[in-house]
Amino acid sequence: MDWISFLTDNFIPYVTSGPNTGRGEISIKCPFCGENDPSAHMGVNLTTGKWNCWRDATHRGISPYRLIGALLGVSGPQARLVVQSYTGAALDEFDAPQTITRAPERTIKPVAWPDDFEPLRGIFCDYLLKRGIDNQLADYYCLACCRVGRWKQRVIIPVFDKNFKLLGWQGRAIVEPKKASRYLTNHEQVKRTVFNLQNISKGGEVLYICEGPFDAMKIDFYGKPRIRATCTFGVTVTMEQIQLLSELSSRFSKAILLFDTDLAGVVGGFNLSDWLPNISFGNLPEGNKDTDKMESEEIKGFLHENTR
User: Fold this and answer.
1) Mean pLDDT in the chain?
2) Which helix (H) or strand (E) segment is 230 a member of?
3) φ and ψ at 292, to 5 degrees?
4) Cα separation of 10 and 188, whole Å?
5) In what order do the strands lie in the sheet with 166-173?
6) How many domains are contained in the chain?
7) Mind listing the pLDDT tens digit for each residue in 239-291?
8) Which residues form the domain of 219?
9) Whole-angstrom Cα distance, residue 44 to residue 16?
10) pLDDT-based confidence at 308, cuts 50/70/90?
11) In this structure, what CATH number is given to the domain that contains residue 273?
12) 60-73: b (≥16 Cβ within 10 Å) or e
């Protein structure tokens, strides 16, 4: 079991040394103690896989399924899927999960809008127009820009909760950066949620789940109010996003996965459809890899034809 990769992928803090960490171990906050654990009191041996809590002797074992179930708040079959993806072990008699178990709540706190972020202008508007995002659409999703500091030369895509409280943002570079990725995210909690919650939380007829925010914006804007869209901010999906998408999709008559590639939507080595069995797959019209080159009427026609 590759515990380091598992913990990193799921934003679970760990330490590699300290008073509670033996040789060949890492330590994490004990999920069985919960908030009663003030520090990282659970050690995990990277060789044997054994784990134990220094606060409570009953919180120990060797089964990775039990520990992963407690850390992520998932069922036994779901935990086995996660273990399989980080070990390559066989799945035995377990199939893909049919239900999602709600994980323990992690607090997602509103953040402040930086003073350096300003209304769209000049080259930022030009960039967005090339991607099929006009001023009306940009205003609807509260897009901004930044010309200085860490977020220099980036379009700012705010991320809100269902009550329109700002949770964070993603910055998309308008020129190819030399020492950074095209997308930067200000906080890990952005990957604990999904895009456009302020508009889709009440449900509707069809929900499209996209990979990136620009695709989601165009589908959502030209499909509303009957058709809505969200995105997972990249090809990898966290368990918290899975749980949220499970809840959201239940409020729509139909949910359609519309990612750019077949490799997208991977959760613990499995496709998003393995975790959300009621979801269906969608494809853009032949010759279109994304919505950038599609005019508004083309998008409306595509949505009409594929969601009847």
Assistant:
1) 84
2) strand 227-231
3) -55, -40
4) 10
5) 117-118, 144-146, 154-160, 166-173, 183-185
6) 3
7) 788 888 988 988 999 999 887 655 445 554 446 666 777 788 888 877 777 78
8) 192-306
9) 10
10) low
11) 3.40.1360.10
12) beeebbebbbbbbb
Question: Is residue 96 one of the residues assigned to a domain?
Answer: no
Please list, in sequence order, all residues whose beta carbon lies within 8 angstroms of the beta carbon of residue 178, skipping any fewer than 6 positions away.
Answer: none
Q: What's the CATH number where 168 sits? A: 3.90.980.10
CA angle (170 as vertex; 166, 172 as ends), nearest 5? 145
For residues 190-202, one letter each, b for 16 or more C-beta atoms within 10 angstroms of the residue's C-beta and e for the rest, the string is bbbbbbbbbbbee
The two tokens of residue 61 are: 């074992």
Q: Could you report how far apart the first and last alpha carbons of the chain are, in Å?
A: 45
Residue type, 87: T
* 227 and 237 inside one domain: yes
**Looking at the structure, do residues 157 and 83 belong to the same domain, yes or no?**
no
Cα distances (Å, whole numbers) of residue 181 to 118, 170, 171, 232:
22, 11, 10, 17
pLDDT tens for each residue of 106-163: 566 788 999 999 999 999 999 999 999 999 999 999 999 999 999 999 999 999 999 9
Residue 103 is assigned to a structural domain of this protein: no
CA angle 145–180–195, rounded 5-degree value:
50
Going by DSSP bridges, is the β-strand pair 51-53/42-45 parallel, antiparallel, or unpaired? Answer: antiparallel
Q: In this structure, which amino acid lies at residue 119? A: P
The answer to whether residues 78 and 128 belong to one domain is no
Residues with Cβ < 8 Å from 74, sequence gap 6 or more? 68, 82, 97, 100, 101, 103, 239
Out of 71-75, 218-222, 244-248, least confident range: 71-75
Distance from CA of residue 32 to its chain's centroid? 25
Does residue 100 lie within any of the structural domains? Answer: no
Examine residue 145 and state whether it is found in any structural domain, yes or no: yes
